[in-house]
Amino acid sequence: MKIALLLFLLAAPVAAQQGDGGVSDAELQKELEKAIQSDQAAAKQQGQSAQQTPAPSAPPAATSTDATPQTPPRGTQSLNPDISAILDADIGYQRRAPQFQSGDDPNLGASGGRHAVGFTAQEVELALSAIVDPYFRGDIFLTIPNLEGIEVEEAFATTTSLPWNLQIKAGSFRSAFGRQHGQHLHIQDFTRRPLINAAFLGGDGLRGPGVQVSWLAPLPFFLALYGEALSIREDAAVVQPGEIGAPAGSFGADGARRPVLATEAKAFFPFGDEWSLYGGLSFASGKSPGLALPQENVVVTAGARRESQLFGADLYVKWKPANVAQGYESLALQAEAIFRHFGAGDGLSDEWDGGAYAQAVMQVARRWFIGLRGDLIGIPASSVTARTERVGTSLTWQGSEFARVRLYFEAEHAGAGAGTALLPPVQPDWAPAAFLQLEFSLGAHGAHPF
């Protein structure tokens, strides 16, 4: 605009000299003022328009005519983990308090020989899992058993890229000892865990902070070897006169200085398209906290700090036809045994005890399963473990992989040897129980081991 004004000023005198009528200086001054005012008004109007005009939007992303879903790279995805919640709720009846009860068994509050009937939220589980990076996977499982407070069932990291078929798990986790012990509640085929779990692996199971190293053998069949070290701390179980006492713990004494050491071997063999076999051997070593016996206002501990070893073996056989077009039948057979050795100490001699269970689960229709299990503890009996038998049966309707309803009956018998030198007799000796269990799962819950 300044260049145009300069040209106008230079050209004006020439035009005045050439024109017939000419232009006076006053008229020229007025024309210049009008031109300046006009330019200022135009500039002001242009500035207001620029403020009101929105910034140009980013060009639309290129679309592909290919129907294949496009997966964004990891860096553009949400960093939130997969989250799921699982509820197990029960209504039930117990003739008396069970002699052996795991932490996630339904607890109706039965005390001693008195019966109980009512409702309970057997367990609420919250799971979070995600691939952390190319080197680690993280899993956290929080549970509220029987609404008695939140606890960390498992929280661990697992390596994903070690050489030589090695894998390390570190954190707080369930030991790989046996088959059933490592399963969470919603994977089980019965409402209660087997007797051997609470009797030999503890009410909360063989779990705690530690490290696990596993190796997958380069063989034509599946063979995995495990080595574990866990820091487990457990106090002596209290046995009150006239009450059903908690079982003596296998491990946990002097947990600050004596970790529990365990090793396992697991193998899997597929026999054709219909039959498969899975078996394992387990061993664990530690120190027992013993039993606390109140006597005349004095608590006497028996069997504390005795060396304890567990020897376990488990077997799982499954038949499932490859073609289910004509039906949905299947059969799963499972058995497990644990034997425990106590070293001599604290006034008690060297001794053995043990137990086992066997179960069968048959799928009779697309959504219906029937289960039968028998448990036996005290083979042989010891000063801290009396003979106990239990028979349980279940009828399960599974609407989907995310919801099921189960009807469960059991009868427990405290047989010969229940009144040992350290354990009071159990009354009544026969104790039936029944539960109706509802289970459902919300969210993205990952697959569990076979």
Notes on the structure:
- The structure is a single chain.
- 12% of the residues lie in helices and 46% in strands.
- With 450 residues, the protein is mainly beta.
- It is elongated and about 130 Å long.
- The protein starts with a helix and ends in a 7-residue tail after the last strand.
- The N terminus is likely disordered.
Layout of SSEs?
Layout: H1 2-18, H2 25-52, E1 82-94, E2 116-133, E3 136-145, E4 151-159, E5 166-174, H3 195-201, E6 207-216, E7 222-230, E8 237-238, E9 260-271, E10 275-288, E11 291-295, E12 298-302, E13 306-319, E14 330-342, E15 351-363, E16 368-377, E17 388-400, E18 403-414, E19 430-443
Parallel strand pairs: 8-11
Antiparallel strand pairs: 1-2, 1-19, 2-3, 3-4, 4-5, 5-6, 6-7, 7-9, 9-10, 10-13, 11-12, 13-14, 14-15, 15-16, 16-17, 17-18, 18-19
Structure keywords:
450 residues, 16-stranded antiparallel beta barrel, 3-stranded mixed sheet
Q: Provide a count of the helices.
A: 3
Overall number of strands: 19
Shape assignment? elongated
Beta-strand content bin: over 45%
In spatial order, strands of the major sheet run 1-2-3-4-5-6-7-9-10-13-14-15-16-17-18-19
Give the termini separation: 83 Å
* Protein structure class: mainly beta
Main sheet summary: 16 strands, antiparallel, barrel
Q: What's the rounded overall pLDDT mean?
A: 84
Could you give a short description of this structure?
The chain is mainly beta. Helix content is 12%, strand content 46%. The protein is elongated.
